[in-house]
Amino acid sequence: MASRLLRVPAAVVLLALAGCTPIGTFLGGGAPVAAPTPSASPTPTASATPEPTTGPCDDAVLNQPGEYHLPDCIRVTVEGTDVEVVAGSIEVLVIRGSANEIDAGEVGTIDLEGNVNDVDTLGLGSVEISGNFNDIGVHGSVGRVAVQGNDNEVLADGDVGSVEDRGERNRIGSQP
Q: Residue 98: in which H helix or E strand, if any?
């Protein structure tokens, strides 16, 4: 036995549903609703004092394309593509994505996973790169470099400390 599909026009369904609730209620034309009566106001309680912070970017997460200007920061995370950052000092810089550009003062640690990122700093404690075609320029010294990937550059105007290169065609060292 073949089943028959019952087709009901959408207007009929809407009219049937409109009969359940006055349509004026949805359009703001229903009966006025009485305002709630106030109850006893709560008594204030003591709350813990928050820890002091160094600024508005203590744990900034930048995940939308665009240009960001930041002061000194404790931790900045860049996620995505085409994010540009100009910042003061950063203790921890985390980059997860591709084609991002970061210009910062002193940076403690860079943890980079991605490709074709460009970072320019005044000084750098350590950098770990997992990806390809990333460019790290340091106008001072770098304490430690670890690279897993190919065609990356970590070049410093000053000294470069310990190096672990687990890739091919990476350029790591002091600029001439």
A: strand 90-98
Rounded to whole angstroms, how far apart are CA atoms 165 and 145? Answer: 8
DSSP H helical segments within 52-169, as ranges? none
Q: Tens digit of pLDDT for each residue in 30-80?
A: 444 444 444 443 343 333 333 333 456 788 999 999 999 999 999 999 999
How far out from the chain centre does Cα 161 lie? 30
Torsion of CA 71, 72, 74, 76, to 10 degrees: 50
Phi/psi-derived region of residue 55, left when phi > 0, alpha when psi is between -120 and 50, beta in every other case: left
pTM (whole model) above 0.70: no
Give tens-digit pLDDT for 97-155: 999 999 999 999 999 999 999 999 999 999 999 999 999 999 999 999 999 999 999 99
Distance CA 88, CA 85 (A): 10
Nearest CA among 117, 129, 123, 119 for reference residue 170? 129
| Residues whose CB falls within 8 Å of the CB of residue 122, separated by 6 or more in sequence, listed in order | 104, 105, 106, 138, 139, 140
Domain residue extents for the chain:
59-174
